[in-house]
Amino acid sequence: MTTIACILILCIYAVFSFFVNRILIRCQVPIFILISMSYFILPWYYFDFLNSLYNKMLSNKIYSIDFGHASILLFEMLFLCVIGSIINIGIAVAMKEKRDKNK
């Protein structure tokens, strides 16, 4: 069950990343910088929400998914999402520059 939860969490983030990438490629530079900074910070809030939800569910004994001691699995997924954010921003910059060269 933990594997399914992890896959679902990462799939939600991947879909969000796809839409952010499309927005980053099409927007102007000041908006690009603002969205990029927000996109880099967002995973921290996303996983803070997931950790709070996990702790709330554990305390109410609604459902128990084992993310390990101190939610280490959530921390590892956060690390992957932050690295993915950096890579996605780099890809958006490269595609934006390629698009601007072709104009």
Provide key terms for this protein.
0% strand; 103 residues; mainly alpha; 84% helix
Structure report:
The protein has three helices and no strands. With 103 residues, the protein is mainly α. It has a domain at 36-87. The longest helix has 31 residues, at 29-59. The termini are far apart. The mean pLDDT is 86.
Number of helices: 3
Radius of gyration: 17 Å
Assembly category: single chain
- Sheet-strand content, in percent, reads under 5%
**Which regions are unreliable across 5 or more consecutive residues at pLDDT < 50?**
none
Report the average pLDDT across residues.
Answer: 86
Structural class: mainly alpha
Give the helix proportion (percent range). over 70%
Give the termini distance in whole angstroms. Answer: 49 Å
Instruction: Give the biggest sheet.
Output: none
What overall form do the CA principal axes indicate?
A: elongated
In short:
This protein is mostly helical and 103 residues long. The protein has helices spanning 2-26, 29-59, 72-102.
List the helices and strands and how they pair.
Layout (H helix, E strand, L loop, with lengths): L1 H25 L2 H31 L12 H31 L1
